[in-house]
Amino acid sequence: MDSSYDVVIAGGGPVGALLALALGESPLSLLHVDSAEAGTGTRAGIGTGAGAERPIALSHGSRLLLDRYGVFRRIHNTPILTIHVSQRGGFGRTLMRADDYALPALGYVAAYSAIRAAMAGESKSAPLIGRVTAWSDAPAGLSVSLQLPDAGHREVQTRLLVLADGGASEMRASSPPKGAASAGVSRIRDYAQSALVAQVQAEKPHRNTAYERFTPQGPLALLPNDEGYAMVWCTRAEEALELREMGDRAFLDRLGARFGARLGKFVACSKRQSFPLALRYLTAGTAPRVIAIGNAAQTLHPVGGQGMNLGLRDAWELAASILKRLSVLDQPDFSAGFMAQRSADRRAEISLTDSLVRVFSHPDRLVGAARGAALMAIDTLPRARRLLAAAMMYGLRSGR
Ligand SMILES: Cc1cc2nc3c(=O)[nH]c(=O)nc-3n(C[C@H](O)[C@H](O)[C@H](O)COP(=O)(O)OP(=O)(O)OC[C@H]3O[C@@H](n4cnc5c(N)ncnc54)[C@H](O)[C@@H]3O)c2cc1C
After folding, report:
1. Which residues partner with 229 through β-bridges?
2. Pocket of ligand 1 (CB under 6 A)
3. Which member of 29, 109, 174, 230 has the lowest number of beta carbons within 10 Å of its beta carbon?
4. What CATH number does the domain containing 386 carry?
5. What is the residue-averaged pLDDT of the chain?
6. In a domain, 317, yes or no
7. What is the pTM of this model?
């Protein structure tokens, strides 16, 4: 291990891994550190007793990014040909079809671990297992502290530290661990909701349709995959806990009551896992020579499935900026410039997902009627539908 690197990346999730792949062919010296083994996560399975793992809907835009590095072809996935959006207890629904946009698919459902494993399969070297625990200013850049299972505490110097260490980023915290500088100022909105994740089967086959159903308690998504549907059911934290612990039959009945009869009866499910939900994002610039990307910069509610898609765009744009401006990575305005460059895309996604959660969970009947009218308008106005579909496929600031 060297004592000095151009770039240190903390985090080997999909976002950190994409950045490492994109910089892999450059002349930069790179240290990539991850606290977990690649490919972690249990496989969902009905009847195996295994807990379900988080399903990811990759957008068409993410596919194009991953294709550049040969990663997408390695990801076992199910194409989404139709997206069906509706609200429980209200009129209005909208349908989007891949055919309408002359695309092979609107998106692709894959397991989180499958995405990580595909990235690991394409990269020339695995990340070093360990944690980045702190950093401080040093004469020629930053001094970064590492905790390595085999070598204990180590210090390395770098020109640029990239935090891709996910939603639980210690460094982003407003009170980071002792000795660590903070990556920036975080804003947090606790939704008091959890996402319950499971693999479920229904009487009717999915026909490559993804369902997003808004209910007053939170959105419920059913995503098509090999084994039926990957479910992401967002609901009040107490209800999620109850649903996680109850028997399978009672759970399937509750799911049917919440989702409706569109797919017939729900007939089987795996064990459930729950994830607490909150919006967390950096509001002020990161420290000079430190850049946060992916969930370390913004952790979104999973409604609309945009968190990873946004993070992959962060990684891709950061790689392009680094490669264009190799000689000025350690200039204080490099990190501020990147933050400014990404702010429109990030702000648009944050406000869209936040508004979806709040407007569609609003109990007022008038608001419900307005939601129904909006869904109908989207369904009947081709331009509105095209804009929504483009936002889901490429991101809100795609300009397509
Ligand atoms: C239920 C659910 C469903 C979702 N569905 C979708 C979806 O359909 N579409 C979508 O786009 N997004 C979805 N998301 C969001 C998506 O999972 C995240 O946006 C994405 O995983 C973020 O990737 P990341 O690489 O930034 O962070 P992570 O995937 O969290 O990876 C962070 C990595 O950093 C490592 N790490 C942590 N601390 C350190 C440290 N100090 N030093 C070194 N390494 C460290 C961790 O071990 C981990 O390997 C969903 C999220 C949830 C909870």
Report:
1. 200, 224
2. 10-16, 33-36, 54, 56-57, 112, 131-132, 164-167, 170, 195, 197, 232, 275, 294-296, 302, 305-309, 311
3. 174
4. 3.30.9.10
5. 85
6. yes
7. 0.90
